[in-house]
Amino acid sequence: MKDFKRVPVPTLERLDQYPLGSSCKSFHITDMNAGWRVFKPVIDKDKCVACYRCYLVCPDGAIHQSEDGKFEIDYDYCKGCGICANECKVKVIEMVKEAK
Amino acid sequence: MSQPVKINARTITKDEYFYGHKACGGCGESLALRLALKVIGEDAYLSLPAGCMAAVSFIYPNMAFKQNAIITPFASTAAVATGVAAGLKALNKNKLSVGFAGDGGTADIGIQALSGAIDRGEKFIYICTDNEAYMNTGIQKSGLTPFGASTTTTPAGKVIRGNVKPKKNMFEIVAAHGIAYAATASVGYLEDFMMKVQKAKEANGPAYIHVFSPCPTGWGHESDKTIEIAKEVVDNGLWYLAEFENGKFKLNKTPKLDSDVRLYLNAQSRFKHLTDDDIREIEALREEKWERLIKEWS
Ligand SMILES: Cc1ncc(C[n+]2csc(CCOP(=O)(O)OP(=O)(O)O)c2C)c(N)n1
Ligand code: SF4
Ligand code: SF4
Ligand code: SF4
Ligand SMILES: [Mg+2]
Q1: Is the ipTM of this complex over 0.85?
Q2: In chain A, what residues touch B216 (CB-CB under 8 Å)?
Q3: Ligand 1 atom with minimal separation from the B144 CA
Q4: Is A89 part of the contact surface with chain B (CB cutoff 8 Å)?
Q5: What's the total number of domains in chain B?
Q6: A51 CB near ligand 3 (under 6 Å)
Q7: Exposure winner among A31, A72, B46, B235, fewest CB in 10 A?
Q8: 10 Å Cβ neighbour count for B94?
């Protein structure tokens, strides 16, 4: 399977690394959304029945299937909205308060 | 007639084409875009006017779409998208052109460009993500804001109880053009939505999909309730799933018309001012609408 974290975050250190003018390459992602979270979804992998529901409903596409068939969260881009936990039928996603 | 392939979470591509965007957590519109793009495919060309979905994707130096995408002037999504389609044709590229616009960008300011594009019969897809107000500029009422909703331009007070008009009937306005394919959908019924995007892709001419997309920020609901709310609104009949194909309307789902609309309304702060009288009026509007839909479409 393709590496899900396919969006390499480039380091923009020099001006010439920035896109020029009003257009840029597709999928030019330069920062993460991890800092948005208040609660963090945690999947209990042993109890996950791999039903695909959380993957389908995540508005950020931050859940993906790993090699073992179970589902995994890309915490660099999960915003902690809680939809996945609310929609998981077997209730194996827990929303845990982020430590500060 | 060819039966479309079964589209569900297992059969859509695992690739993501809309990633790292800055939509609010739990945003219904961003989910609609994400899944539509998985069905549409990687090499389509996208046109988006001003609105949340453009604002959360094209943030310099970020670009959250994998597909080629352009921001259009607010009023001209369908004009740009059909222009792009003409360009692709001239270059002998057999690629899809797709427009995505909000409810304001569709039912109000973009309606003329949309009408013209459908009338020209050009092959393109137009997806209206309906969050029932101009969200990107701070929750102003649009032609698709429902009766009773409080917005910043229809604030609820002692005399006026939020928005005084029901939603504009965008789906039937589009269908009245004799369009190749049109459908309504909801992010509460995602397989149905994706199946409709697939039909739009295969349509022999212009196709329009109107997808109900809750907005936690503008509606004042919990960010984890987006799907639940979008499902409830279909189940209770305040929104509907339908198609227009080969010149005929078809209902995809019959709601429970005796269900209590409070379950839906109470989950959102934009409706919190409603009195029992207001709610009776909402139920009366529902009844009136369904009487006609059932008589004419089933
Ligand atoms: C001609 C023009 N008028 C007004 C605006 C300001 N404007 C930008 S986005 C927006 C609201 C868009 O609302 P909608 O189409 O419903 O999309 P949403 O943000 O809700 O997704 C407005 C009024 C503009 N960009 N261009
Ligand atoms: S909390 Fe929201 S953003 Fe994070 S993985 Fe779940 S659905 Fe996706
Ligand atoms: S919704 Fe729950 S059971 Fe289904 S794949 Fe996700 S975590 Fe596993
Ligand atoms: S304001 Fe609403 S539509 Fe706009 S990004 Fe936030 S949740 Fe999505
Ligand atoms: Mg809107």
Answers
A1: yes
A2: 81
A3: 16
A4: no
A5: 1
A6: yes
A7: A31
A8: 8
